[in-house]
Amino acid sequence: MYSSPQSISDRNSLPAGTSIRRNLPPRRSQLLETPISTDLRESIRAGNATPAQKLAVFSGGGSLAAEHRAELLTLLTADSDPAIAERAQSVILTQPLDPFLVAIASPDADPRLFSYCADNLSQKAGIADALAKNPFCPTGVVAHVASRLSADGVQALLDNLERLSSDTRLVVALTHCKAATPEQQELLLEIQKTEGLVVPEIEEAAAEIEPDKKKRVTLLQRLAHMNVVERIQLALKGGREERMLLIRDPNKIVQRGVLQSPRLTDLEIENFAAMTNVSTEVLRSIAANRVYMKAYTVVKNLVRNPKTPLDVSMHLLQRLNAFDLKLLTSNKNIPETLRSTAVKLHRQRASVRPPT
């Protein structure tokens, strides 16, 4: 390129050692290395991104994390510019699956990401489960992919009954999931039952929990007119008196609702572990919960409870201290197999105890 006399003069006047590129535009490589504004993700999510920002997503620029790029690509498939939308779709086809799985799992994922993945990627391994496991993903979206869930994905929904019981469409859709285990299928059928609680079954327990007859009758009448979904909601959000009654509900999914209640106290768990008028499923569920089992009183109460399944109590026997183990050796209410094993363990420990 021809240089004007002025530019040549300017060059000659530069101090020694000064680069002549100081006053020239940056190289293309420098432009590509310059991070695009940190609000790139927010701009595209808000719908006010510039064409340059959109192109940066395609090229992988802008210092975007892989999962954020995956999210933004799905949003750009609905761009008002057909060329942008088409290119976004083409780029997605070349991307690995993992960034999409990470993006779906994010608590601040854009809802449009969920919808896109449900409509276009749910046949890919792990996508449906990822949607089910994110509590912020709308239940309607999960219902759309319910048939593609694994048993692990179904379990994630059963472990969040507040979310599951909020949408009957999701429950119905899950009953058609072939990957659900027999136990999961049973629970899904339980949640669809419409009959109320049979009052005579819990009248005795109600008398223990609520001594005031008027309040007790009101509570029992209310429970009698509730279907299963309503009782689950009460188990999750109600007070101590409701939980103490509903833990005895013959419906297993209602029992699970009680154990998932965020208002449940440590003392209530200790009491449940000692109760002989709850189902074995309740006791087994308590034993399977690592948080509950950190409390020694819960362990002790489960072992001493004759209603606890034998495989559970036998497994917990080793955790008893010397005093409680000795008491167990003379407990005639527990299964004989458990008692005799306790006797052997007590003798074992006594034989290796150092002399005082």
Largest β-sheet summary:
none
Structural class of the secondary structure composition?
mainly alpha
Count of DSSP strands: 0
Helix content: 55-70%
H/I helix tally: 25
- The proportion of strand residues reads under 5%
Q: Average pLDDT value?
A: 86
Approximate shape = elongated
The ordered string of helix (H) and strand (E) elements is HHHHHHHHHHHHHHHHHHHHHHHHH
Q: Tell me the radius of gyration.
A: 32 Å
**Span of the ends, CA to CA:** 100 Å
Low-confidence parts:
1-37
List keywords for this structure.
25 helices; mainly alpha; disordered N terminus
SSE diagram, text form:
Layout: H1 5-12, H2 28-33, H3 40-46, H4 51-59, H5 66-76, H6 82-92, H7 98-105, H8 111-120, H9 127-133, H10 139-144, H11 151-158, H12 161-164, H13 168-174, H14 182-191, H15 203-209, H16 213-224, H17 228-237, H18 240-246, H19 252-259, H20 266-274, H21 280-288, H22 296-304, H23 310-316, H24 322-329, H25 336-352
Short note summarizing the structure:
Helix content is 60%, strand content 0%. With 356 residues, it is mainly α. Helix 5 crosses helix 6 and helix 24 crosses helix 25.
Describe the structure in your own words.
The chain has 356 residues and is an all-alpha fold. Among the domains are: 123-192, no CATH class; 193-264, no CATH class; 268-356, no CATH class. It has 25 helices and no strands. It has helices at 5-12, 28-33, 40-46, 51-59, 66-76, 82-92, 98-105, 111-120, 127-133, 139-144, 151-158, 161-164, 168-174, 182-191, 203-209, 213-224, 228-237, 240-246, 252-259, 266-274, 280-288, 296-304, 310-316, 322-329, 336-352. α7 packs parallel to α9 (127-133) and α22 (296-304) packs across α23 (310-316). The termini are far apart. Mean pLDDT is 86; it is low at 1-37.
